[in-house]
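Reopening this ticket.

The earlier resolution said the output was attached, but the attachment link was broken on my side. Pasting everything inline this time so it's all in one place.
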Amino acid sequence: MEKFAGSVPKVYETHLVPVLFAPYARDLARRAAGRLRAPSRVLEIAAGTGAVTRELAARLSEKTAIVATDRSRPMIDQAAALMSATARPIEWREADALQLPFEDGSFDAVVCQFGVMFFPDKPRAFSEARRVLRPGGVYHFSVWDSLAENELADAVQSALAVVFPENPPRFMERTPHGYHDRSVVERDLRLGGFTLPPEIETLALRSRARSARDAAIAFCQGSPLRDEIEALDAARLEEATDAAAAAIVRRFGEGEVDAKMQAHVVSVER
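Inline output:
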């Protein structure tokens, strides 16, 4: 399992969320809120630092209980701190998606943004999501499309292959962008017990950053890619970040960055 610890949660929130996750968080929360009629309980899996949680809190009725979980305690702590000033109560739980600590049929909806790719046993994780859904409840989740369809991630991985030619970091290709085959997702949902066909929309949005440097920090220091870089040579983290920033400038120019990103957004009914 990839790590989200140390300084990663803070950099993840300040850099990676605005660049990658915020636009899809708004979309996923909109889908969940639009599909539900006065839900009593909603579960979020792999909530990270709360990008989707905040959107759900803004869109759902105050009578709806929101339970946000993540396997990483540092990520949950970061998310809870960001929402501590709001009046809306959120139940924060450290939980493994492969063994959810909730009773059968206890949620009207389950939501997971860009977490499924990290689950080591995806059919089992789908089975757990299905188990905690009530009959007629819906599981909404998103997974990244291929690296080729996500310009910033592709530029960063290509840059790091030059910095570490003998053992290029392949985290982006292996994990975030390693689960993009829609037929495989459909197969794993069936193996997880879902019998109804899922709705899958391939959604292209724009990834924007204030600068190439901000985007490079997001990827190289605000994600588990950092662990892979530091495992190769911890002293070269800044060099790797600089190389990624230079590659982004070459591809997108100086100043603000505006790049294509693409994901599959899935909704499946229990």
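Reporter confirms the inline version is readable. DSSP finds ten helices and seven strands in the chain. The chain has one domain: 8-269.
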